[in-house]
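Tokens for chain A. Residues wanted.
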């Protein structure tokens, strides 16, 4: 297995792993943000993490699912770092300033509380597929590989979760 060779420090194996996965990871990251610098940073951090901790891969599911989990986490870390950097002295850049409408501000606490309660009420297996497909942006097939369940089961659980949430939110 390629990853086992990476664990042993095989640079050629790492290069091959990068060649096989960097393009699709980059495309997936671009779906989550239009900030090309952030995409590049997350991709580099992903493969740096893989190089340093390939031995932590537990062998469950596909390597691609493990890589995407790391990439998604690195993207979130990058967004958090950038949001802290925005706090600067001087005139704010107009693209960085967003003001929610009064209606949005009034609805957020109510909506967030209802959504949080609805999500908390979901069965763990339904929350798990929503995490993979909605938050992580995986396709049904990718989520199936990552979760180790059939693709049809992922689709069924997503449908059930959405129906349950729709009922709870109405």
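Reply:
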């Amino acid at each position: 297995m390629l990853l086992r060779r990476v664990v042993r420090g095989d640079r050629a194996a790492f290069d091959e792993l990068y060649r096989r996965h960097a393009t699709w990871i980059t495309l997936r990251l671009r779906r989550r943000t239009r900030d090309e610098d952030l995409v590049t940073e997350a991709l580099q951090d992903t493969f740096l993490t893989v190089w340093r901790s390939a031995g932590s891969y537990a062998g469950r599911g596909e390597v691609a699912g493990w890589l995407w989990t790391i990439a998604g986490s690195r993207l979130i870390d990058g967004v958090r770092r950038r949001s802290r950097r925005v706090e600067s002295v001087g005139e704010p850049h107009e693209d960085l300033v967003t003001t929610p409408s009064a209606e949005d501000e009034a609805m957020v606490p109510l909506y967030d509380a209802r959504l949080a309660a609805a999500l908390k009420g979901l069965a763990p297996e339904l929350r798990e597929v929503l995490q993979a497909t909605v938050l992580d942006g995986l396709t049904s097939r990718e989520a199936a590989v990552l979760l180790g369940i059939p693709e049809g089961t992922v689709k069924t659980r997503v449908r059930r979760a959405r129906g349950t949430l729709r009922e709870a939110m109405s």
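Residues 63-85 form the longest helix (23 residues). The chain has a mean pLDDT of 79.
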